[in-house]
Design brief:
By secondary structure, the protein is α+β, with helices and mostly antiparallel strands. It contains 13 helices and 9 strands. The strands form 4 sheets. A 3-stranded antiparallel beta sheet has the order 7-8-9, with no helix packed on it.
């Protein structure tokens, strides 16, 4: 472990994380210190993934500045306009940080859609704390989403929206094809086709951006992992690269550590946290350790999302052009 030039922040009054050591294992080809690649021009770095850190801003770690990552080199740029999408007929829609200015964009094509967009944002704000509370809570901690929504005045309406597809929510709420295409394109940023059932929350992606913008980390998306790495090392943690985790160590019904492909093993005193895709994670421990309901749920999720099929990428966005919307009244089936 190399010495860190970033000492623990003096502004932290409570430092519970310093009492427990952290070990981070990174797979081959990944590193907390990686630089964006030069894919186009020499000296010009290209950010290939997670260019904008939008949804993560609602995470308490960033929202409440729990780790004070700016002290470890993380800096965000807040662009305005937020997003601009042109259409084949020469028209366009632009989302600005200013709500009135954004509504004026919709109003150029439909005053009703401008009013709908403003109302949609107000509706979303009323339930956003509920979504945040469940999105960033560990599994098994706190009340489930349906229970929290049941206590909300518009809870049943939101439960119904969540069961719909992005396309159904957008189609029913907006009348102009450009408004619909704009929300579909932004809603697609979650990489799930907008005609899939139970994706309705994605229709409110634009609302989240209107509230928090699309912050871009200065220097590329890797600056977040760099700052986290600096924080870990500044607080006596260790980062080991070129470690491919192949198996979970399960003892007494709990995950006690991991085994790597090179034969090494690491045990945890408090917890094992992982970003391994769930389709791989489920095979890293005996099936009986997960339980039938969990394994069956993973299988159904992979079938529904097509995680075992050829990646769709962004090519199928062409299915959501204005011509398709006008001709069929809904997106074309995905091939």
């Amino acid at each position: 472990m190399r010495p860190s030039p970033f000492p623990p922040s003096p502004r932290r009054h409570k430092q519970p994380r310093q009492t427990a050591s952290t070990l981070s294992l990174l797979a081959p080809g990944t590193t907390a210190w990686s630089q964006p690649p030069e894919l186009t021009l020499r000296g010009f770095k290209d950010d290939t993934c997670s260019t904008a850190h939008t949804g993560i801003q609602a995470n308490p770690l960033l929202r409440n500045d729990e780790l004070i990552l700016r002290d470890y080199g993380l800096e965000y740029i807040d662009p305005d306009p937020i997003m601009h999408i042109p259409f084949p007929d020469g028209s366009y829609l632009t989302q600005w940080r200013d709500l009135d200015r954004t509504c004026a964009e919709f109003a150029r094509y439909s005053k009703k859609d401008a009013e709908t967009y403003r109302r949609m944002l107000a509706d979303f704000e009323s339930v956003k704390p509920i979504f945040d509370a469940t999105t960033f809570a560990p599994v098994g901690f706190g009340k489930p989403l349906n229970e929290l929504l049941a206590a909300h005045p518009q809870g049943k309406q939101w439960q119904r929206r969540l069961g719909m597809s992005v396309w159904e929510v957008v189609r029913d709420a907006f009348e102009d094809d450009r408004s619909r295409a704009f929300l579909l394109a932004v809603g697609h940023l979650g990489a799930v086709p907008p005609d899939f059932p139970a994706t309705g929350r994605g229709a409110y992606t634009l609302a989240g951006q209107q509230r928090g913008g699309r912050p871009i980390p200065k220097g590329g998306s890797g600056e977040l992992t760099k700052a986290l790495g600096r924080f870990i090392e500044a607080h006596s943690g260790v980062i080991i690269t070129n470690k491919w985790v192949k198996q979970l160590i399960v003892e007494g019904g709990k995950c006690a550590g991991v085994e790597c492909s090179d034969g090494s093993a690491y045990r945890a005193d408090k917890a094992v946290l992982s970003t391994i895709h769930i389709k791989h994670l489920v095979d890293m421990a005996p099936r009986e350790s997960w339980g039938h309901d969990f394994v069956d749920g993973v299988s159904r999720l992979l079938q529904r999302c097509g995680c075992d099929a050829r990646p769709r990428g962004n090519a199928h966005l062409e299915s959501y052009g204005l011509a398709t919307l006008r001709a069929e009244g809904r997106p074309a089936a995905l091939g």
